[in-house]
Write a structure and sequence with these properties.
Layout lengths: L1 E7 L2 E5 L14 E7 L3 H9 L5 H8 L6 E5 L2 E12 L4 E11 L3 E6 L4 H9 L5 H4 L2 H14 L1 H21 L5 H30 L8 H67 L12 H25 L4
Parallel strand pairs: 3-7
Antiparallel strand pairs: 1-2, 1-3, 4-5, 5-6, 6-7
Helix pairs in contact: 3-5, 5-8, 6-7, 6-8, 7-8, 8-9
Length: 321
């Protein structure tokens, strides 16, 4: 689907076609063309109307392209990724957005799921300032909105890590290991999304391209600062999830040691009892305790109880139990 907005005479409005005269800086018209999941005939507007370089057109039509910024003759081509956290898949999925930035126009190409573009596309006819500041300012608005959408998902991940830290001590169930590893995969996905984004925005903030003015570079610096903070958070999350996993494994090991200690104490206690029962249970003459035949059982039972009490007292004194 192709959506066309133009700004002229102080007003933003829809357009059904593109006049090549609008591409001339002297026309005083700003143009925004949005291609959402374009078909092959719709994509021809990139090569036929705007005459973009074939390599940039090929990258724009590719399903996923690595974030980058490249200067071509007469325009700037930028690829950035929007974030899409899918809890059911445990990962930060991304959808790339391709930008063709010229002196009087901005062309965006995406798969139709970009929330940042959808929001600005809805507001553009009602707010002439969105397009009236020029294509670079519009490009900044889209990128800034994309980065703003990162924070809620990062906060959700942080809340989930807080819950895991409590669960490893309050409810150390066996399935908790899988949940920790799922969160670790989420953190790795977040770092894969943020790191290349930060590098691209850094180039825009440094004015590596003549299309970016000093004023706009200051705005991109603010976006860059947000990405740096998110990247730092992702690094801290990586350390936290590693610590959570280590603490959980240590907790499980300690609980196992407690169980083994109890079983060991029980086994050690029954060793002398087994020896007594084995000796006096053999069919051979053995020293007899005072009393008749009936008293032999009670003697052995009393000795066994005394041994148990003595061993428990020793274990308790040595703080083994």
């Amino acid at each position: 689907m192709i959506t066309i907005f133009i700004y002229r005479n102080g007003q933003s409005e829809h357009a059904t076609r593109i006049d090549r005269a609008w591409l001339n800086p002297a026309s005083g018209v700003y143009l925004w063309v949005d291609l959402a999941a374009p078909s092959i005939p719709e994509s021809l507007i990139l090569s036929d109307t705007f005459a973009f370089h074939p390599l940039s057109v090929e990258d724009a039509m590719a399903p996923v392209e690595y974030p980058k910024a490249e200067a071509y003759d007469g325009y700037l081509y930028v690829v950035l990724h929007g974030i899409d956290f899918r809890a059911s898949e445990h990962g930060f999925a991304t959808h790339d957005i391709d930008f063709f930035l010229g002196p009087t126009y901005l062309v965006t190409v995406h798969d139709g799921s970009a929330r940042s573009i959808s929001e600005l596309r809805d507001h553009c006819p009602r707010n002439s300032k969105i397009l009236g500041e020029g294509p670079v300012a519009l490009f900044h608005r889209i990128v800034d909105t994309m980065v703003d959408h990162y924070r809620p998902e990062v906060d959700k991940l942080q809340d989930r890590l807080d819950e895991l830290e409590n669960e490893i001590f309050d409810d150390p169930r066996p399935a908790l290991v899988r949940e920790i590893l799922d969160e670790k995969r989420d953190v790795s996905s977040l770092r894969r999304v943020i790191t290349p984004q930060r590098d691209v925005i850094a180039r825009l903030a440094r004015r590596d391209f003549v299309d970016i003015s000093s004023e706009m570079s200051f705005r991109f610096r603010d976006v860059y600062d947000q990405l740096v903070r998110i990247a730092d958070d992702a690094l801290l999350f990586q350390d936290r999830i590693t610590g959570i996993l280590d603490a959980h494994l240590s907790n499980v090991s300690n609980r196992l040691n407690e169980v083994m200690k109890v079983l060991t104490v029980v086994s050690v206690i029954f060793m002398p009892l087994t020896l007594l029962a084995g000796l006096w249970g053999m069919n051979v003459p053995l020293p007899r305790f005072p009393g008749g035949e009936a008293m032999q059982f009670w003697w052995l039972l009393g000795i066994s109880a005394a041994v148990i009490v003595a061993m428990l007292a020793v274990f308790r004194r040595k703080r083994w139990i």
